[in-house]
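Long-time lurker, finally posting.

We've been working with ATP-binding protein (Sphingomonas lycopersici) and I want a structural starting point before designing mutants. I don't trust myself to interpret raw outputs, so I'm hoping someone here can both generate the structure tokens and explain anything notable. Sequence follows.
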Amino acid sequence: MARSDLLLSIVRAGASGDQAALRSSVEAMVADERGKNHNILADRLQRALNAVSVTPPTRSFANSQAGRDTVLETEARQQLENLVLPLPVTRQISQLVEEQHRAELLRAHGMQPRHRVLLSGPPGNGKTSVAEAVAEALAVQFFTVRYDALVGSYLGETNTRLARLFDYARTVPCVLFFDEFDSIGKERGDVHETGEIKRVVSFLLMQIDQLPSYVVTIAATNHAELLDRAVWRRFQLRLALPQPSREALAAFLERQFALWPEDPGMQPDTLAAKLGAISFAEALEFCQTVRRQHILSLASRSLKNILREQIDLWATRVGTEEVNAARSGQATSSSKRS
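Top reply, 14 upvotes:
Generated this for you. Predicted structure of ATP-binding protein:
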């Protein structure tokens, strides 16, 4: 953001009494001055900023209801300790949670807690669950961005709605979750994208930069390669959630077995081997199908028999490999015809 724009943002925030906007604008100026090696000025700004109380504006003051339709508000129930995640991901998310819990200590030393996270990886492997679990651990509201309420058909309409979204998010400590972030944060150098999309991405990045640290922004993408290059540096944590290993899948299945009313007669690692390379979401759906059938049988059939039956049926399913192969074949045929 240009220095003149930052100064204007600071003046407006100060005049309106919006401490959250004031803090985010001054933080951006501190970063800008440090980037220019103006460390004395940056330190003075930081000390002045630390004297400002970090209190979100009240919803009545911010007139935030205008942006409420841009998010889906849900109660966070997922817990971090119940997730099977790669160890580095668990450690870094735990660090983020601790920094948020002890934010005032960090601010007293001129630091801010990290609050921007990018999660990437194939679908069904815990990105949404991680975002929800962070909200649960912080005991804050969980907002999922509604793209259907954001994207407008008229010039500038999407940016206006984005502004309403971020104004609403600033009013309360929360986790702001962007699922399928690549749909709105696409690479601006893509020759197929319109000028309007490029303006939206630029505005989105500016708004993310200005969010206060009590708004934890978590973006998830299945296609990290589509994201604009400037998106990556906006996020302090960039975490990969790959397809689970067989060991991770077995650990997940063991937790599911613990919820069943009787012994399934099979070890988790054996079932993991039979299910093959699948996501956590697919494994959960398989386990829930077994339970449904057991419930409907009114205990006339054992879980062991139902499990083996479902394993046989599982082998006949259409997997992602077949879908991808079919798509590849169609693409090859099309290229030959052209």
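Before you design anything, note these points.
The first strand starts at residue 71 and ends at 74.
The chain has a mean pLDDT of 84.
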